[in-house]
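Weekly structure sync, notes
Attendees: PL (lead), two postdocs, one rotation student
Agenda item 3: pending single-chain targets
PL asked that the sequence for the first pending target be pasted directly into the notes so everyone works from the same version. It is reproduced below exactly as submitted, 114 residues in total.
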Amino acid sequence: MTTAAGRTAPDTGPVQPVELAELVADAVAAHPAVAALHGGIYGAVATYLPGRKLVGVRIGEGDEPVEVAVVVRPDRPIPEVVSALRTEVSRLCGGAPVDITVADIVLDEPPVAS
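Predicted structure, written out during the meeting:
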């Protein structure tokens, strides 16, 4: 899979949590119904990277699930969006359990310039 940033998800070999968090964030942000990643309550859904904080994705340790929090657009059914995101993130994370939180819905997003 090619992500929004043009990176390709690896098919073999271990991926470092930092790289995995970035791949997940890119894949989630590329979904047409996702307006933005979100930090969740108290900003707890985040990955700390060298020199910055990646908001909206937390890669669990051990048996913990991968957590993703998003703001969605209302043009698609939310359960459909959540299911698609969960499937893709789980695939990227080797079948790990995934928790998706829809933190908000954008109703008045400005139109995208063409």
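Discussion points:
- The helical segments are 17-30, 78-92.
- Residues 17-105 form a domain with the Alpha-Beta Plaits fold (CATH 3.30.70.1350).
Action: rotation student to compare against the earlier draft before next sync.
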